[in-house]
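OP here, attaching both records as promised.
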Amino acid sequence: MMQALVTDRLEDAIEDRGVAVIVTTHNYARFLGDAIDSVLAQSVPPVEVLVVDDGSTDDPAAVLARYPGVRLLAIPQQGIAAARNAALAQVSARFVVFLDADDVLAHTALESGLACMAANPGAGFVYGAHRLVDADLKPLGGPSICRVQPNGWHSLLRGNVVQMHAAVIFDRAKLLAVGGYEATIPRCEDYDLFLRMARRFLVACHPAVVADYRLHGQNMSSDAAEMLAWHLKVLDRNRPDPADVAGLRAWRDGQRHWKKAFTNFVWTERGAPSATRWAQRRKMMRVAPRLTPAAALRQIVLRVLPDPVVDLVRRVRKPKVTPRLGDFDFGDLARLKPVDPNFGYGRGNPVDRYYIERFLDTHRKDVKGRVLEVGTPGYSQIYDSGITRQDVLNVNDDPGTTIRGDFEDEATLPADTFDCVIFTQALQYAYRPEVALRNLYRTLKPGGVLLATLPAITPVDNIEWQWYWAFAPKVANRLFEETFGPGNFTLEVHGNVFAATCFLQGLAVEDVGPRWLDPADPAYPVNITVRALKRTETGLKPTEND
C-alpha cells in the first residue's frame, strides 16, 4: 500500500513541472561534455537543462553546439553563487539539481531524488550518496553518505552531511523562499544554503549513488586552509540563538569537526605536488596552530601501522550506504525496553501530546461556557476562551473533582448541561466506548461541542487504569457517526511511521522536532482527533440500546 502511494507521488512529481538541471562552468569546457552526457542519460529525463557560463575563457559554447536541446546562459564572471542564482531565475521546474561541470550524475540520480522527495513531503531538499573518481572518471573508492538526523539543522551545524552539492535535489520554491545562494560568499556557499534551508524545512536522504565527484588537482576544495576559514565563517553566519542550548552544542561540535577534518586533510596524500602540500601545511599552521601538529602525528601513526590494521580502522569508521539483510544498524533503538517507559514524559513532551495540544489550540474558541474535562482541568485552563464554570470528572475523589463516577454510567453525567467537553485520551478506558460516547452526547447542551482525542499506535498503560482499546480511524469514524450523526463531526488522523516509532520508544517532541511529526500517513496513525457537535434542532439521537 505504502509503496503504491510513494510510486503515485513520484509520478505526480515527474508530471508536476519535473526537474531542471543547472550545470555551472568556469573554464571547465574540457569536462563539460561528460557532465551534459550524464544529464541527458537520466532514467527520468529533466524537463530543462541549462548551462551557466561564469565568465569562462575556454569557449563552452563550442561544447554546447553538440547539444541543441541544452540552453546556455553566459554571464560576466561573478562567482559560483551568483551564477547559480542567475540560472535559477531562468528555470521554472518544480525541482532543481545543480551540477558542476567537472562532475557527473549517475543514471538514476533524478529518479532516486524524486522518489525520496515523494517519500518526504514538505522537504526543502533531499540528497543521496556520491563517489570520488579520478580525472578519467575511474572510481577511487566506494559510495559515501553521511545520513542526516531528524533535526537536520543540528546535523548540518555539526558538519556538512550532504558532502557533495550534485547529490542534492531542491524544491525550487523553498530554495527561492530562503533567498537562494548568498553571492557574497566565495566558498562554502552550498553549506551556507543547506544550513539556512534546514533551519526552515525538512531534510531527508537516501542511499542511492547519484553523483561522481571528480578529483583532478584543481578543485576549489583542495585549498584546505582557505576552506577551513570559510567553513568557520559560514558557521558564524548561522550561529543559533543563545536560548537554543542544543543548537549551540551542535554548533560548537561543528567548529571542532571542521578544524579536525581540514588539519588532517593537509597531511593525507591527495596527489598534489610535494611543494604544494607543504605550502598547505604551513598555511594551516597559521590557521590552526594547535591542531595541525596533532593531525601530523595521527597520520604518521597510521602510516607506520600494517596495511591490514589501517584497512580495518577505515572500514569501521566508514558509514555503510545500504545495510545487508540482517545487518541493519538499529543504533540506540536496539533495545527490549523503550528509551522512556513513561510515554516520553521523562524526556520532554510526548509525541502524542504534540498532536493533542495542536488540536485543542485550533479549537480553543469552543472552550467556553460550562466546560467538563476528564481527570484534571489542565487543558481547560490553557485553552480557556470564556469558561463560566469548570467541572472535572474522575472515578476517584481526586482534588478538584466535581463529578465522581464512570463515564460509561448514564447516571454519572447530567443531561443537556455542558457547552464543551474536553475528552482527551480517555475513550480507551471504556469497555463499551459506544456507551461512553452516548453519555457524552447526552450531557452536552444542544449546540455543545465535544473535543476528543483517541490513541491509535501507542504504548499501553496497564498499571493504574484498565486500558481496553486502541482505535483505527475507520472504527473511530463509525463510532462518532452512529452517535453524533453524519456531518456533525470532523475527524483527523495524525502521525506517520517515524512518529509512531518515536512514540513507542518514549522519545519526546524535543528529540525530533515538528518537521518529522507534521506529515500525516493514515497507515501509521498515532493519534485521532475529533470535534463533534450536538445539533440544536436536527441530528441523530443516540439509541437507548447497548
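Record two, same layout:
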Amino acid sequence: MELRITRLTTLWPSIHHFQVILLFCTSLLCLQPPTDCLRNLGNETDRLALLEFKSKIGNDPHDVFSSWNDSVNFCKWQGITCGRKHHRVTSLNVYGLSLSGTISPFIGNLTFLRFLNLRNNSFHGEIPQEVGRLSRLRHLNLTDNRLGGEIPLNITCCSELRILILARNRFVGKILDELGSLKKLVSLDLYGNNLTGEIPHSFGNLSSFKHLSVAVNNLAVNIPNKLGQLTGLTFFSVGVNNLIGTIPGALYNISSINVFSAPDNQLKGSLPANIGLTLRNLQDFYIGGNQFYGAIPSSFTNASQLEIFDISANFFTGQVPNNFGDLRDLQQVNFEFNFLGRDTNQDLSFITSLSNCSNLEILSFAKNNFGGVLPAALANLSTKRSLLGAGGNRMSGRLPSEVGNLVNLYALGLEENHFSGTIPISFGKLRKLQKLYLHTNLLSGQIPPSLGNLSQLYKLHLGIPELQQPECPIKRKKHKNSPLAIILATVISSIVLFMAITSLRVFCWRKSRKNPSSSPFYSNSQPRNLNLLQRLRVAIDLSSALHYLHDLCETPIIHCDLKPSNILLDNDMTAHVGDFGLARLLSKTSSNSSQDQTSSIRIKGTIAYMPPEYGIGGEPTTYGDVYSFGIILLEIITGRRPIDEVFTDSLNLHNFVRSKLPGQVMQEEKWEQKRLLKTMRVMMFKHKSKKIINVQKCVVSVLKIGLACSVELPGDRMNMTDVTRKLIIITEAFLRARTHTERQIVNHN
C-alpha cells in the first residue's frame, strides 16, 4: 500500500488531522521510523509549496523555473537553499530575475524559511496573510516590485524578523504600530510607497534598531520624541514627506548615526551648536527643502567622516564656517537657496579652505547673499569637481580664469551676479562641460572661439547683448537666383553660438568639416554601435536645430527634407543638419501655411520620411518637419529603417513601435529582427557584476515622443519646443540615474 499526497491546503492540518496522519504512518508499518515519515511529509509540503509559488509566476524571461521539476531534488532548484539537518527550505532567493505574477499564499507552508528575497521583480497584488506563519523568518526583502494594498498585520507574527524591506512598491494605509512588537528588528525600509499617517511611537521600543527609512511617502505629524531612545541607530531617513515641527533633540545626540536624512518636509528649528560633537560619526547630512534657520554650526568640522552636506532651500543666515576644509572626505556640499553671506569681501573665504578637500565633486552656494570677488583659490579645488554652482549672488569682478583648471566640470553656473569683463579663454578647456550659465551679468567683449571646443555642451545661457559673436567658419555655397541661400547663410552663421537662448544648444552646419558621416546611425548600411546616451544627444542636437528654425528665427524656416543622409556627425559625435536645398521660408502671418512662401521650389521630400499630407498635395508646414523628425527619432532608438522590407501594406515604423509599447520594448525575444536586438543590447549599460541598469523608462519615454511627432494628422503632432524640452528632461533623468547607480556600484565594491 502506498501513501500518496497530491495536494496540501494553505492551512496547516489541525492537531486532530496531524494525529491521524501519524497513526496512519505507523499503522502502515513504514520502513522508516514515524519521525522520518513526518520529516518526508514536511519535505513534500515544501516541494508542493514551491510548485504553487511557481504556478503564480506569469512571466519568467530568464527561464528560472525550468530547473523546478522532479528530475532533481527541490533543494537543488535555482534560488533554493535547504537546511542540512531536516532538508527543509530555509532560503528562497529570486532577486532581480524580472519575474512577474503574484505571491502565492502557499508560501506560508515553508515554515523553516529564514530568508525570503523577491527584490527587483514585477510581483503585483498584495502580500498574502499567510506570510505571518513564517515564524522562523529573519530576512524579508520585497523591494522594487508593484505590490500594493496595506502591509498585513500578520507580518508582526514573524517574531524572528531582523530585516524588513518593502521599499519602492505601492503600499497604502498606515505604518503598523504593531511593528514595534518585533523586538529583534534591526532594519526597516519602507521607502517610496504611498503610506500615510505618522511614524509609530512604538518604534522607540526597538532597542536593536539600526536602520530606519520611511522616506518618500505621505507621512505627516511630528517625528516622535521616542525615536531618541534608539541609541544604536545608524541610518535615519524620513525625507520627502509632510512632517512638521522640530526634530527631537535626543536624535541629535545619537552618536552612532552615519546618515541623517530629512529633506523636503516642513521641519523647522535651528541646529544645535554642538551637533558635530554629538553626531561625530556622521557621513551624510541632508535637511534641504525645510524651514530651518540660524547659523551653520562650526562644530560640524568635528564630524571628520562627513562626505555629503546638504542644507539647501532653508533660511540659514550668517557666514559659512572657514574651517569647513578640515572635512577632508567631503564629496558634495550644497548651500544653495538660503540667506548666507552679507554681501562683503569676506563671504567667500570658506572656498580657500575647501581646497583641502581632494574628493570634492559638487559645490553649490547659488541663490544666497555672497558678495566680493570669486577667489583665485578656486583653482586649487579638486579636479574631480563635476558641478560648481555660484549663480544668483552678488559677486563682482572678473570671471576667474582659474575655473578652466576644473577640467571635469559638467555644469558651471555663474549667472545673475555682477561679473564684468570678458569670458576667459580658459573656459574652452572644460571639455566635459554640458551646462554653462553666464547670463545676467555685466560681461562684454568677444565670445572666445575656444568655447567651440565644448563638444558635450547642450545647455548654454549667456543672454548678453554686449557680447560679440564670432562668425561661423562655413563655406557659403551660392544658389543661383535664390535669395534664400543668403538668408540661410546668415541664419546658419548665428547657429554656432546663439547666445540669447536659454537651455538651447544650437549648431553650425559645416560641410567643409573633416570626416562627416552620411548618417548618424548607419555606416556603410550597417547599424552604428552608438550607446543610448549618444543616441539621445543626436536627438537633442536635431530637435534643437529644428526648434531654432521653426520658433526662433525672424522668419520661420521649414527644412522640408529631413532624413538620415541630411544629418551629419562630426568627430565629436555632434549632429549637424544639412542640405537646405528644399527649405522654405514661412511668413508668420500665414498661420503655418505656405501661401506666402518666398521660394517656389516644389516640395519633393523623401518617401518614408515625408509626411502623408505632402503626398496628397498638402502645403509645407513646420508640422511636416515634425513628422520627419518623429520617424528619424524612432529610427535612432530602434535601429530600424522605415524603408525596410518588413514594412508593407498598413505596417510601418510608427505602427510597429506603437504595437510594442510599453510592455514589449525591452523583452528582446518579442522583437522581430535580430539586428534590432543587437542595437538594443548595445544601448544597455552594464557594470562589473553584469547586472543591466534599467533603461526601459528612458527608452519608452523617447519612443513615445517619436510616436507623438509622427501621427497622421498634422494638428495632433508635438511642436519642436516641447520636443526639445522633454528630450533634455529625459536625458538629464537618465544621466542622474546612471550616475547614482554607478556610485552605488563603486560604494558596493
